[in-house]
Every structure is written in structure tokens, then in C-alpha cells.
Amino acid sequence: MHYGKQLATVAGFGLLALLPLASPAMTLEELAARVERLDEENQQLKARIAELETRQSEPNEPAQQSIATARQQSRPELPSVKLDHQHAYTMLDQTTLINRKQEYILRSRQSGALADNTVYLSGAINAIANYQKSNTESKFGYLMRHPTANNQRTDKVSEAIIHSAQLALTASLGDWTNAYMEFLYDPHQSFGTGTTTDLNRNQVQLRHGYLLFGNLDHSPFYFSLGKMTTPFGLTDTLNPFTSSTVWHAFGGLAYGANIGWMHEGWNLDIMAIQGGAQFRAANMPVDDSNVPSKLNNFAVDLNYTLDLSADSHLLLGASYIKGSPYCQDFPVVHFNPCSDRNAAWDAYAQWNHRNWTVQAEYASTLDEWPGTFNPSLPQYSAAKVSSWNLGTRTEQRVFGQPVNFSLDFSRFKSGPSGSPWEKQDQWVLGMSTYLTPSTKMFTELVRAEGYVPLNFVSGGNMQPGETHSDTHADSSIFVLGANVAF
């Protein structure tokens, strides 16, 4: 607007008009003084008008700030992305807290180890070199790879490989919501066909993926939904790398919904498991088929941790699953349908005292596995399936560096006494050390006594009366490797 200039012009003309009316008695000095005063008043008026124009044209800063603040508050807070090597190692470690990762996430949220509204990106690689020798041609019983003649020939084998690689995301959203997904590459333990370089084995899968709702500061209950380990047994191992036969026999992975409760050392998990043949160690018939079209299986685990002292505690637990995987008729093939279910139970204990850990576990089916009876070998009746484990580990200092030493024995009993598929024993002597909190170097000496692959465990793929299982086929294995998480 220009009304300031217009007003100044009018004032100037007014001054000229008044000059002739000035008193004749007014001296020139008085007239000059009056003109000077009028000019000063005119300048003050122009400055005031300019100030008003400036205020009118400028934005209202407090109002603008209030609007910006309101917009910022109404905008949802976006999660940040972080790396945490210790969290990555714990979540992706395949030897510890195998079916208790969800409890770990909730406790980490409670302690502040996992920040709110944050996504944690994690990865891990297990790389190993091994040498194996068997007393029987092309029969190697080491369970950390699927024992087939497709990958192991003659009586000596050696490898330098990536055993597994993982990539995971852990998201903490708000106060109650968490999400977890883990991708796994594991050609040695893949159910794909062919050699370890066959594309059927070199696939990446979503190993775990679930939503987890819970806040231990407000409630002892939590809920998870998705693909997860089943709450059956402990299935952990004190070995630095090699899993026990209990995990190989009963460690479950399935779709389902889990309700959990934690309170003063007690922990209860009840999981509704999708029926049919699940990914691992769960099979519940659905209309005499393996089609997973009903939520008709379940597992429950109850455990208690007793604090004996500040540096000593005892974990005791028991589990039950309605439909174990040991229900097929002869001949046995992975994931085949069952005519009836076969439940299983588990009991376990773990004692930690300073730098020592001792662990024991026993799991068994309630009924005989029908497929362990081969009609061509009627002298061997059907048998229950069981597995047990006893191990210990201690941490000692060697040249100032903490080093873990472990000794572990586990047995998988898969047939009647005296049968070629009766059992497989596993001895493991291990040593490991951590270069960083998420970098473990390890070595193991493993003795596998017996060769009992679950597919056609009692025969059916050979001439009648013959089986490729051999309880006298023994293997000796040397393993050297590293587990690195980031």
C-alpha cells in the first residue's frame, strides 16, 4: 500500500497553502522555525506510517511457530534404524535361547537395551571347515548336515563352506508392538534335493517371522503370531557349534499363535500350532492328510528359574506337544501324512554357577512310531522315539583370554533294540573363544556312532529285509569355524 506517500504529499501542499495566511508581524526567523518544526513532525509521521506498513506485511511469528509445532506433533514419529552387534548375536545364535527369543526381546525392551520406535538390522555368518572319516563307505552320521550319499562319498570327506547365513530385522514400535523377521541360507541343512551346489539347496527362506505384543512393565502376558519355534523342550546346546540330538529330533518350527506369561521366575508358553506337517518336528493329521488346513495341534512349556545365589541359578522345565513328527506308517518319508497323532513330552534342567554350566534333557514320544516296524523284518517291533542330552561347559583363562571348554553327549533312539535303526550317539568335545562380543572362534572333535537318516529309517527304499540305516557305522569329525554376527 502507498497511502504513506499520499499523506506526505497532502501535508506538503497544506504547508504551502498556509504560508500566505501567516501573520504579517511574523519575522523571517519565526517563519523558518515553524517550517522546521512542521518538517520534523512530517518526518515523524512518515516514519510511523512506514513502521505500520512493515508490521502489516510481516508474518505473525508466534502464530507461524504454533502452526509448525502442531504440524510436527501431528506427524507420526518414524522409527530409526540401528545396528547392535550383541543383539544380533543373541537373536541369530543357533545354540542358545533357541525357543526363547521372544522373551529375550521383551526383556530387552524392558531394560532399555532395545530402544522404542527403532528398527535393528542384524546379520550373521557361520563358516566352517571340517574333515570326516567313516568306517563304512558313504555313510557319515554327522547331523549338522543332512546325511546323504549325494554329498558324501567314499570313507573320507572334507569341506570349507558357509554353513549358514542370516539376515534379520527387529522392530520396536510404540510401547507394546514388536516385529521380527529372519532370512536364512543353509544349504547343508536344506531339505532341497541334489548336492550342496544344486540350486534346490541354495535357497533363501524366511526362517522366522512374527508379530509380538507385550510390555512387561504393564503386564506379565504377551502374545505372538506367525512362524516361530515351538515351545517344546530346551533344545539348547553347550557345544560351540554342533546341536544336540534332542534338537535334531524334537526342535520344532511351525505356523501358529503363542500366548506367554512371565512372572517372578516362572515362564509359561502355550502355542496353538497349525495342523498337518509343519516345517519341523510337528505333525498333526487333518482328515488323514498332511494338509495344514486346521489349527489343531498345540505345545505347552512351563519352566521356573530358581536363583540360588547372586551368581548361581537353576532352570527346571517340562513340555508337551499334541502331535510330534513321529507318526507315519512304514515306509517313513519326511512330511508324509499320518493316520493318527503321536504326542511327546520333554523334561530339562540347566544349572549355572559362576563359570560352570551343566545341562540335562530328555524327550520321548508317548506311543510307538508305526514306521519303525518293517514288515520284512518282523523280529523288530515298533518302538517309541526318544532323545536325551547331558553336557557341561566351563570358562577358563588361557594366556589372559577367556576360553570355553565343553563336553557333551546326546543319544537319538529311533528303533527297537538290536535293529539297524536302533540309535545314534553323538560325543562332542568343544573349545571356543570370543574375539569380540559377537565374534566366536571355535573348534570341535565329534564322534557320531550310528547312521540313522529319518527318511526310510527302517527300510523301504531297498530290497525287502534291507535298510540303509546302520547302527555300526561310526564317523569321526574335526570342525574348525567362526560365528560372526553384526
Automatic annotation (TrEMBL):
Q: Does Signal show up as a keyword for this record?
A: yes
Q: Region entry Disordered: which residue ranges? A: 51-79
What SUPFAM superfamilies does the annotation carry? Porins
Query: Is Signal one of the keywords UniProt gives this record?
Result: yes
Q: Which residues form the signal peptide?
A: 1-27
| Superkingdom classification of source | Bacteria
- Compositional bias of type Polar residues: which residue ranges? 59-75
**Family annotation (InterPro entries):** Porin_dom_sf
Which Gene3D superfamilies does UniProt cross-reference here?
Porin
Q: Which UniProt keywords apply?
A: Signal
NCBIfam families tied to this protein: LbtU_sider_porin
The protein's name is: Porin
Annotated source species: Halopseudomonas salegens
